[in-house]
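Handout, section B. The chain below has 260 residues.
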Amino acid sequence: MPVVILIVVIIALVVIVNCVKIVPQAHAVVVERLGGYLTTWSVGLHFKVPFIDRIAKRVLLKEQVVDFPPQPVITKDNVTMQIDTVVYFQITDPKLYAYGVENPIMAIENLTATTLRNIIGDLELDETLTSRETINTKMRATLDVATDPWGIKVNRVELKNIIPPKAIQDAMEKQMKAERERREAILRAEGEKKSTILVAEGNKESAILDAEAEKQAAILRAEAQKEATIKGSRRSGRGYIKDPAGQCRWSPYAQRSCSG
């Protein structure tokens, strides 16, 4: 008899301990009673009725990140490419998350793939490669509305990689190489042009300086010749003429002396 009582006490203690639950921070627990939804436990200490209540689902309320594998998509101009996405989501309603859809992550993945195909199908290849932010915004808005009945809020959607076909990649690389070579040729031509202009300006300034020097030299030679002529005339007595008043004055145009 004492053994039976001991077993009963142990079983009762085990049941009581199992009925005491502590919910940590950023978690929630969905509880059912007799198979139906009863309540949602938030952070703290909770008790459940043994054999009647059960924990249906434990939910993480932190923001979660899911990296989906590349999905084949076709652009408006019939180019097939691979795009993989990263979805940042958060559970806002544990009850809807528990009862809204069977496999929420798979549902988000399939919804992401179909939404991505719809958006890319309206864009051409060049637009797809240059419109990441637009695609991210459209996908986030669409997914957020679609996942709201599941108790999920989509905070962000990012296109991780856009992988065009090999032929497109080779063509893009050739185009980029040609563009780099074109820019290099332009820079080289501009450098040569500036160099030619500088040389021409240098030659022009040099010619101007040479002309000015020659001009100054000619002026100096003429002045020197003039002085020599004046001095020679004074020594020979020539170059002097009489003015109307009868005074003897020097003139460079006189051919005879004042006395002659």
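Note. Residues 44 and 172 are 58 Å apart (CA to CA). Compare this with the example in section A.
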